[in-house]
Amino acid sequence: MPEQLDLRLPDDVRLHVECTGPADADVTVVLLHGWTLDGRSWHRQLAALRDATAGSVRVVTYDARGHGRSSCMALPTATLAQLGDDLAAVLDEAAPTGRVVLVGHSMGGMTVMEYAHRHPEHFAARIAGLVFVATTAEGHTHTVYGLSPRIARLIRLAETTGAGVLARCGSWRPPRALLRALRPSIRWMLFGDRCDPSDIRLVTSAVARASLRSIGGFRASIGAQHRLETLAALGQLPAAALVGDRDRLTPPPCAESIAGALPATELTVCPGAGHMLMMERPEEVNAALLGVVQQVTARPAAPAAPAG
């Protein structure tokens, strides 16, 4: 059973954190979920890491503020900048020693970039590998939902307006009956050619646990972030970037620009896959993740540096 932590942050937000593996492991993998999701979205990667490493690697998942089993927050803190600060706090609490591989899906990948931007010394002291899954370093630059640019602009305007309304709804959760009715739209937006019904149920369940403030509040920050320069400054870190060629939210140009900024990145484009790669293409995601972990473990550990 995973060890469960309740991490209370300086602004009194409580994060739900789950850890497996030894606290003093040489390598820790931290899995960061996407917008409106929660840590359960990584269940196939958790199983692969457990089987491949025989429990020698520490694995940490947590629900971002306003998501899953973590508490809601004040609206001004519904930003990627705050999520980057939260990640630094999670590392200090749940993985205070050893090298770290960060794995981010969608908003989780953007959180990794914001952490690198806001805490460069902390990042340099701890991070040994990166995996970016269906994410972007360029906000909504490439997001056209698989539609014509003109229609995409109209959808983005409606989405932005709606997000502003939801952000003012506080800690309320979306009605489950409404989410069940929206399953066909969720399936179209998030998945590609193939979709297991259990994955739709899991995603719908996660959205039902996200506060309306987090669903609406993070939208502006996600659309505006630009962190290619931050990535370019990270040097030769072992890294992987994966994207589905049917991804309507972070299409292939997003992953290609990440790989262009990080020269040691292995780029994988998954035919027929959408935005939920860890569910749709677990074999490819697991192979990329384990490949980065193996590169990190094969390198000798640097002298220990203090976190914080």
Low-confidence stretches: 304-308
Structural class by secondary-structure content: alpha/beta
How much of the sequence is in beta strands? 15-25%
**CATH topology-level fold name:** Rossmann fold
Pfam families: Abhydrolase_6
Domain AB hydrolase-1: 29-288
Organism: Micromonospora echinaurantiaca
GO molecular function: catalytic activity
Structure report:
This is Pimeloyl-ACP methyl ester carboxylesterase. GO terms for molecular function: catalytic activity. The chain contains 14 helices and eight strands. The chain has 308 residues and is an alpha/beta fold. Strand 3, helix 1 and strand 4 form a beta-alpha-beta unit. The two termini are 29 Å apart. The C terminus is likely disordered.
